[in-house]
């Protein structure tokens, strides 16, 4: 599935060595972090932030696929953060984009410790296709626990530098 296994592995290893928690706190020119409220209109905000960030990095060609994937990840984060009501309601969902040339890693951090579980896609149902879409449109995806609690679900994209 991964076109450039060594490069993708290097990017993911670098992210894990520093940790998503560190990237979420850092003020970096190659990263964007955007806290999102736990509500449905956060999906549009996440798509807009993704598109504008990729455009500013000269990676507009990734915008459509990345916006679709981020929509699915934020939708899942909002859905599972709201039902059942969580004990960690004060913690927002956070969208993060990280440029690790030639790759872009996008991640959605949420306060839930529940692992994302892919389902067999039901193409008739309106639900249950999210992680299938993430897998289809990204090079690879996965998730990591956050030191502060919760998790970050990520997807890796390969782009060409402008």
UniProtKB/TrEMBL annotation:
Instruction: Identify this protein by name.
Output: ATP-binding protein
Superkingdom assignment: Bacteria
Matching Gene3D superfamilies = Histidine kinase-like ATPase, C-terminal domain (3.30.565.10)
Task: List the InterPro entries hit by this protein, alphabetically.
Answer: Anti-sigma-factor_SerPK, HATPase_C_sf, HATPase_dom
Which segments of the protein form a coiled coil according to its record? none
Which GO MF terms are attached to this record? ATP binding; protein serine/threonine kinase activity
- Has UniProt tagged this entry with the keyword Nucleotidyltransferase? no
Identify one Pfam family in the record: HATPase_c_2
The chain positions of domain Histidine kinase/HSP90-like ATPase read 37-154
Residues passing through the membrane, by range:
none
Fetch the PANTHER family from UniProt.
ANTI-SIGMA-F FACTOR RSBW, ANTI-SIGMA-F FACTOR RSBW-RELATED
């Amino acid at each position: 599935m991964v076109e450039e296994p060594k490069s993708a592995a290097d990017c993911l290893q670098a992210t894990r060595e520093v940790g998503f928690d560190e990237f979420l706190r850092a003020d970096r020119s190659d990263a964007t972090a955007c806290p999102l409220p736990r509500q449905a209109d956060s999906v549009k905000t996440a798509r807009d932030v993704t598109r504008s960030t990729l455009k500013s990095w000269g990676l507009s060609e990734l915008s459509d696929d990345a916006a679709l994937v981020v929509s699915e990840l934020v939708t899942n984060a909002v859905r599972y953060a709201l039902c059942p009501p969580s004990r960690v309601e004060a913690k927002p969902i956070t969208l993060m984009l990280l440029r690790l040339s030639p790759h872009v890693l996008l991640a959605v951090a949420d306060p839930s410790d529940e692992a994302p579980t892919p389902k067999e896609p039901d193409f008739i149902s309106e639900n249950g296709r999210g992680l299938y879409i993430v897998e289809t449109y990204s090079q690879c995806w996965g998730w990591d626990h956050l030191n502060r609690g919760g998790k970050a679900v990520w997807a890796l994209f390969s782009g060409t530098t402008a």
